[in-house]
UniProtKB/TrEMBL annotation:
Entries under Pfam families matching the protein: ChlI, Mg_chelatase, Mg_chelatase_C
Superkingdom field: Bacteria
Signal peptide (residue range): none
InterPro entries in UniProt: AAA+_ATPase, CHLI-like, Mg_chelat-rel_C, Mg_chelatse_chII-like_cat_dom, P-loop_NTPase, Ribosomal_Su5_D2-typ_SF, Ribsml_uS5_D2-typ_fold_subgr
Domain AAA+ ATPase: 233-417
SUPFAM superfamilies reported for this sequence: P-loop containing nucleoside triphosphate hydrolases, Ribosomal protein S5 domain 2-like
Organism per entry: Streptomyces sannanensis
Name assigned to this protein: YifB family Mg chelatase-like AAA ATPase
Length: 539
């Protein structure tokens, strides 16, 4: 009788659980049994592993073979267990010393010829192994750079089972020929899943210099200012206006003025993208804020996460630490929009399905764009809008009150004037200049919030803003009047305070003054308060 064990990782959402892979050989009729709650793709690993072992030059045991995956109560899916199953079997036959693989974490799919194919979710799997105390992992060579992002882990990248057997037995390591230059590498086929991404042509890994420049936007001084405030404090934004006013242009330029991701944020974003299958090969770390713009026909499951079996990350998770842009927001279904309420408040989404409950990160900056009416010409003088008043009210009511109450900034985007569009010297401020002010404001907020669980103004609870960090005396007079008139809710008051602190950070004020609060109130309610609308050019 032979017995060996090794380890792999099962992913539940973007969190990993270390799984012990045990192989037991007993005398009897040759059979291969796989137990431990495997899914269909994992059950098929019996045939893949058998063919891979034989084609790697090893002998397949002609005995009763049982492979167990523990803990048995955790659902296991995918082909990433193949390499661990093969090594456990070879350890049970004593071709490999069982002690060499007992504390080794192996992740990878096996081809029938014995080559090790990359799988999705390597980064969160290695993170889970590191948290569990493991220090050595074996992954496909193509994902070794991704696994190496985890500190304190020794990573071995292999191209074939034959190479791994040689390493574990101290034999000469055979050379495996990579794909020839100019030829596609079929081994990378499993890394990116077609249709899994919900982007709009602005890749998360794109060079910041290649992103659209804010200087391309003509006019729209108020909307540009709101964009800057949104980026500085991570405040959600609603842009309303007629078609062609520049709402989409503004939203597409928002990621470029956001600060680069911190190391922890980069790991979180990369983990989500790796699990979703949209992490580009050769670029293991996402360092710039992602941009996700789903079509208005997107379902609720595609926004918050779903799919067969355990839920997969949706648009809110793919936009984690970045921008979620919902163009033509009233055209989304009401159920899909209202499903955003929880992640807007908590920064994560909990998806419950029959197969299990998954908690996915979803701390994003939401930008909504909407027309004033179905034809889009309601606010234009002499534009010939023929929409009845009841139709306009019904159209605008598609954005529910509870959802809009969670949006900090509401801006009317007016049509661009002829002079602003065609006049000379009307080019707006460049992205680099705005991004510099945003980074400075973020640093001021981070210094003030040092030692707290929060890093941006939008995360600070209202109670703390009203008691611990107070505004200048008399600055809340207009806010108190709006609160008494019912123009502001309690949540609205807290959000005005958060925006006021962001405005003060951009203006380099020690605390919000009366004009900072007036600007925050104007951005919140959309009612002009006579507040200045320019940063960086004097106030």
């Amino acid at each position: 009788m032979g017995f060996a064990r090794t380890c792999s990782v099962a992913l539940v959402g973007v969190e990993g659980v270390v799984v012990e892979v045990q192989a037991d050989l007993e005398p009897g009729v040759a059979a291969f049994t796989l137990v431990g709650l495997p899914d269909k793709s994992l059950v098929e690993s019996r045939d893949r592993v058998r063919a891979a072992v034989v084609n790697s030059g090893a002998e397949w045991p002609q005995k009763k073979l049982t492979v167990g995956l523990s803990p048995a109560s955790v659902p296991k899916s995918g082909s990433g267990f193949d390499l661990a199953v093969a090594c456990a079997v070879l350890g049970a036959t004593e071709l490999i010393d069982p002690r060499e693989i007992a504390d080794l974490v192996l992740i990878g799919e096996l081809g029938l010829d014995g080559r090790v194919r990359p799988v999705r979710g390597v980064l969160p799997a290695v993170l889970a192994a590191a948290e569990a105390g493991y220090r050595q992992v074996v992954v496909p060579e193509q994902t070794a750079a991704e696994a190496s992002l985890v500190p304190g882990i020794s990573v071995l990248g292999v191209r074939s089972l034959r190479q791994l057997i040689a390493v574990l037995t101290d034999a000469p390591v055979p050379e495996e020929e990579p794909a020839g230059e100019g030829r596609p590498d079929a081994m990378l086929a499993g890394l990116m899943v077609p249709g899994a991404g919900l982007g709009a042509g602005l890749a998360a890994d794109a060079d910041r210099g290649s992103l659209p420049d804010l200087a391309d936007v003509a006019g729209q001084q108020g909307a540009r200012m709101a964009l800057e405030v949104a980026a500085a404090g991570r405040h959600h934004l609603l842009l309303t206006g007629p078609p062609g006013a520049g709402k989409t242009m503004l939203a597409e330029r928002l990621p470029a003025i956001l600060p680069p991701l911190t190391k922890q944020e980069a790991l979180e974003v990369t983990a989500v993208h790796s699990v979703a299958g949209i992490l580009p090969p050769g670029q293991p770390l996402v360092s710039t804020p992602p941009y996700c713009a789903p079509h208005h026909s997107a379902t609720m499951q595609s926004l918050v996460g779903g799919g067969n079996g355990l839920p997969r990350p949706g648009a809110v998770s793919l936009a984690h630490c970045g921008v979620l842009f919902l163009d033509e927001a009233p055209e989304f279904t009401g159920h899909a929009l209202d499903a955003l309420r929880q992640p807007l408040e908590s920064g994560h989404v909990v998806v419950a399905r029959a197969a299990g409950v998954v908690r996915l990160p979803a701390r994003f900056l939401m930008v909504l764009a909407a027309n004033p009416c179905p034809c889009g010409r309601h606010t234009l003088n002499g534009a010939g809008c023929e929409c009845p008043a009841s139709v306009i009210r019904r159209y605008q009511a598609r954005l529910s009150g509870p959802l809009l109450d969670r949006v900090d900034l509401r801006v009317e985007v007016e049509p661009v004037s002829r002079q602003a569009l065609l006049g000379s010297g009307c080019r707006g401020e460049a992205t680099a200049d705005v991004a510099e002010r945003v980074c400075a404001a973020r640093e001021r907020a981070a210094a003030r919030l040092a030692g707290t669980p929060w890093t941006t103004n939008s995360e600070v609870p209202g109670h703390e803003l009203r008691t611990r960090w107070q505004v200048a005396p008399g600055a809340l007079a207009a806010v108190e009047r709006d609160l008494e008139r019912g123009l502001l809710t309690a949540r609205g008051l807290d959000r005005v305070l958060r925006v006021a602190w962001t405005v003060a950070d951009l203006a380099d004020h020690d605390r919000p003054e009366e004009e900072d609060v007036a600007m925050a109130l104007e951005l919140r309610t959309g009612i002009a308060r006579g507040a200045p609308l320019v940063f960086g050019g004097g106030r």
